[in-house]
Amino acid sequence: MQWTKVLGLGLGAAALLGLGIILGHFAIPKKANSPAPQDLDLEILETVMGQLDANRIRENLRELSREPHLASSPRDEDLVQLLLQRWKDPESGLDSAGASTYEVLLSFPSQEQPNVVDIVGPTGGIIHSCHRTEENVTGEQGGPDVVQPYAAYAPSGTPQAVNAAKHGVAGVLVYTDPADINDGLSSPDETFPNSWYLPPSGVERGSYYEYFGDPLTPYLPAVPSSFRVDLANVSGFPPIPTQPIGFQDARDLLCNLNGTLAPATWQGALGCHYRLGPGFRPDGDFPADSQVNVSVYNRLELRNSSNVLGIIRGAVEPDRYVLYGNHRDSWVHGAVDPSSGTAVLLELSRVLGTLLKKGTWRPRRSIVFASWGAEEFGLIGSTEFTEEFFNKLQERTVAYINVDISVFANATLRVQGTPPVQTVVFSATKEIRSPGPGDLSIYDNWIRYFNRSSPVYGLVPSLGSLGAGSDYAPFIHFLGISSMDIAYTYDRSKTSARIYPTYHTAFDTFDYVDKFLDPGFSSHQAVARTAGSVILRLSDSFFLPLKVSDYSETLRSFLQAAQQDLGALLEQHSISLGPLVNAVEKFEAEAAALGQRISTLQKGSPDPLQVRMLNDQLMLLERTFLNPRAFPEERYYSHVLWAPRTGSVVTFPGLSNACSRARDTASGSEAWAEVQRQLSIVVTALEGAAATLRPVADL
Amino acid sequence: MQWTKVLGLGLGAAALLGLGIILGHFAIPKKANSPAPQDLDLEILETVMGQLDANRIRENLRELSREPHLASSPRDEDLVQLLLQRWKDPESGLDSAGASTYEVLLSFPSQEQPNVVDIVGPTGGIIHSCHRTEENVTGEQGGPDVVQPYAAYAPSGTPQAVNAAKHGVAGVLVYTDPADINDGLSSPDETFPNSWYLPPSGVERGSYYEYFGDPLTPYLPAVPSSFRVDLANVSGFPPIPTQPIGFQDARDLLCNLNGTLAPATWQGALGCHYRLGPGFRPDGDFPADSQVNVSVYNRLELRNSSNVLGIIRGAVEPDRYVLYGNHRDSWVHGAVDPSSGTAVLLELSRVLGTLLKKGTWRPRRSIVFASWGAEEFGLIGSTEFTEEFFNKLQERTVAYINVDISVFANATLRVQGTPPVQTVVFSATKEIRSPGPGDLSIYDNWIRYFNRSSPVYGLVPSLGSLGAGSDYAPFIHFLGISSMDIAYTYDRSKTSARIYPTYHTAFDTFDYVDKFLDPGFSSHQAVARTAGSVILRLSDSFFLPLKVSDYSETLRSFLQAAQQDLGALLEQHSISLGPLVNAVEKFEAEAAALGQRISTLQKGSPDPLQVRMLNDQLMLLERTFLNPRAFPEERYYSHVLWAPRTGSVVTFPGLSNACSRARDTASGSEAWAEVQRQLSIVVTALEGAAATLRPVADL
């Protein structure tokens, strides 16, 4: 070989090696240093959907509803242990689980001295007594743990009258009319266990407390050391003795009443003309001058009630929480309310826990499972939790998902929620098959029952708005966290029942669900899949699937209602809606622009920190609608879009209510000043919301 | 060439290229994909420190204080334009700048009908008049833009009396005694322009409004459309006519008073014995039955007042804001108050802006410069800003740095702030040379004047706590943002002046600063460097230099004060401090553990997202001490550790105040219930704070 050649080869080799190094360094992306960011994994999603098992939900429900589990009862405590055991299971449990206990004020009937409703004859003798318990129809209504029907927090007392004290009502009897709950049916052979309808002896229990949360510790967690309001200063309890009765007892009272006929809208299906009293009919079952004696012996008691929390730690953003919860306590067996939800909760935690323990999956963000205590008494467990961890939850929670009663009936999905959750629910339900005949998705089935015409999307399923009917209330109203409540529900063409007929009675049992509400548990499974898909999408998606621009439709419709129904009135009082128009338009523009920026970013390969910043804007948007000083008379309600609306115009609640008050009373300038103040509160909130959606370095 | 050779060479070449590719890909770290995270750059820091120029600060001050610039005056508007021009300068400006205007209620004396204080003889004739203006000592006290001395928001009226109406004070005269402001000196040759002391005609103006923010729009931004409280319903204005006068006029009145001798602590340096009245001395300058007539003609006016904001966009975390501000409006020329701060602000923005425009530097986080309007009337501009952007600022602001009066005197640094900012101020000041003789750092000089013995650090400079004396108030008290106020100040062994003597008078001029307060402007430069270093550290450090564990010392000292000074009393009323002890201990433990985790992480090469999560815990800690329902009677104050304390025990203010009220009045159980409630509010806040410091996936 010649030197020149060797040199030539050597130089060539060096050049090739160098070229290779250069190519290797610059031309091949380095996987190890910049892995694709963890995102929603459709395979995992499909696995979860496939593993959610209807029969396991059924078995969960059987166990959960085996015994009555009134808040703070021994069986309620047993279920705390059951949840802990499931969530600490080495093969299907979560990363951690624990119970936290609050000392809260509950209300119970006296066991020694039952509440009674009697008809007392002219000579003072009892001539008729209402039933003190429900009829033991299936063997489950007679146990010692079935709490006597009562109105929780109604005060004790023994008023006696027959609708006579026109201007000084001394006591209240409450019943559910077969027209409202049973589609008019009332005979034993037409009701449970022969159908899903309420038996004549069924009595709906409930809390009669006006607010929510522990009555003694408003805005403070009910830990033992917390300050407690003196009982004499508690507001929100009913002022007079109150007792619920079944419709068979109501018939005995109501169908014997004398006096003028009640208005048509007051008539029901008890098979007689309802009259207003006073006194009994002379030709009826009781002497005309008989009286009704109501004796209520309810007692307030400080009791320990627990929440159970279970956590799956997020792999990438553990400080972002997807919260999913339901209450645990029931009035009696509570198969539907709340165990149908808890049965789903347990199946979801099992499936996710199993993937977790196998090492197959860990979500991007943390998932928190919650089993709340004492919801039936006024959302107590969830409210105390939000009071205890107010700041932390407000700073970190992506969304709260509530599944309380998971199945009211088998016809369709029903979702209540704030606008930013609409899209994720749509995405989830489009991919899940609907139970029942046909090959529809849950979405396609849903849209047949609840729909609306959206100016943006065309015909879409319609979400309901969130009131305060379950544990989502403190999350949305007090903390401003985007929330939703998911269930399967009725075909309204088939029943007009206000709610499933055995609601809050001793007939809400496993067999009731198994035979009438959801035989085969396919609706339970549909709810589990919907909730599961929503939870996975919220916890695993790189970009948070919260579409804040969907608030624009709500704002626009509130604005239009204000303009159409209040505009002229406001103008008379020199109040302009102009600033509100501007604020809504600004929100719409900023939300749309943010949507554009997200789309653009999604096409590239954005930095995780960049996406985190955008996600924070999405997550925190709901918080910007909070104003803790907006409604000083409303406890916990701070959300200026979803606070209770007493005014008839479906618009911003503060505005609607203030207008209604100013118009209804012959009120002076102060009432109109309050209208102006409420308008400014909304405008400030909307302007603030728009400001948080702007590019973050624009002030 | 033979085929085998060619093949051999070809294979060899391929192998070399391949080896090169492999080496290039695996052996050389890929800079572009995983750059070291942007962190504080000590070279940039040194450059900034070096470029902050004393003479430029001096020139800024000359321009800023050239004319009186009372809030909303034409000159105030000129300065808005000056700021905008500087911040939009193509070579030394910021990324963006803009002014935002609020319509706010200010108070001015009438130009047509000046406020007067006269002595009226027995026959009704005026026998003596107080000066209506300050003496034109330097040619700057006589211009048309020098506002007549007045008490802003004091109502109009013309009361007449001589301290006679014992139980019905009709008007108030206010003056500053030479004992309090002039170290006892009062003759013209001992005062400005011959010294820094206040001339005899000097009058301190000020706002007499009790709260802060625009009086007509509490909790709402004072944009034109916002709801305004009816004037008749505004609370917080002084109830009776009030007028400030100079001490030469005060001498005429006070030294001629009759009656018993005033208490020793009321005596001053006017050269006579102060008496309490009623009436004048028979042997004095005025007939004994003369009267003092006070005529106040102040007018409330809605005026436009602007904030100016300038932004440097963060390179990595633009949604994290380091806010740095000062007010712009003065009472007269306001060379010290506030222009000494604004002169520093402009120099800092110039130096940082220049680096930015050169492309040398861009901070990790955004820096926001603010020039607030109408501070002198009650922190109005800053308060309206926090009302307008409440949520956005609360979610994103790392800290607020205030430099109002930057130099009171030349002796030492003085910092007020919340505990988490202590460390960053210490770090900054240890690296900056102190002005004046010797080779001390600002830190080493500071510790000689203000120090305390810390159980953790030993002897350290002591930070003061933040009251409501400048624009930091809404940031710390209303938004819960870690805040600080930075200035250079007195050697207290050399003067006992309550504040620099020409405060809020027409003698607070450029020459006053240039000759007496800070000749050479080295103290201004020291403040600029301190603020600059703090801003750079907060905006550029990868790990936020907010040391939350420094709150432990405060909590521990508040707890000890509660135990020592209130413990026995509380025990008598069956109120236990046990839960507070537990909460403080829990906070201490969690803060220490978080500190440990940060240390560990700092030793590795943590992921930016991981650090962001930790930083969020640090940034948001201060927020967890807010409770908007804690002090319903205190406007804006929500911080349970720093709300105003009226009780004498230096502990948690709500507890201190409630105890003080319960003890002072012969109060019943309700006052003690309020003590218990305040205790629970603090315990809940501390437990919540500890919870936010825990590892984020632990609930």
From TrEMBL, chains A, B:
Task: Specify the Transferrin receptor-like dimerisation domain's residue ranges.
Answer: 575-694
A Pfam family of the record is TFR_dimer
Could you list the residue ranges forming a coiled coil in this record? none
Annotated ranges, domain Peptidase M28: 307-515
Q: Which UniProt keywords apply?
A: Aminopeptidase, Calcium, Disulfide bond, Glycoprotein, Hydrolase, Metal-binding, Metalloprotease, Protease, Signal-anchor, Transmembrane, Zinc
Its GO biological process terms? proteolysis
Task: Give the main location.
Answer: membrane
Protein localization: Apical cell membrane
The yes or no answer to whether the keyword Transmembrane is present is: yes
Give the protein's function: Aminopeptidase with broad substrate specificity. Has lower activity with substrates that have Asp or Glu in the P2' position, or Pro in the P3' position. Lacks activity with substrates that have both Pro in the P3' position and Asp or Glu in the P2' position. Lacks carboxypeptidase activity. Lacks dipeptidyl-peptidase IV type activity.
Tell me the protein family, please: Belongs to the peptidase M28 family. M28B subfamily.
Q: This chain belongs to which protein, by name? A: Aminopeptidase NAALADL1
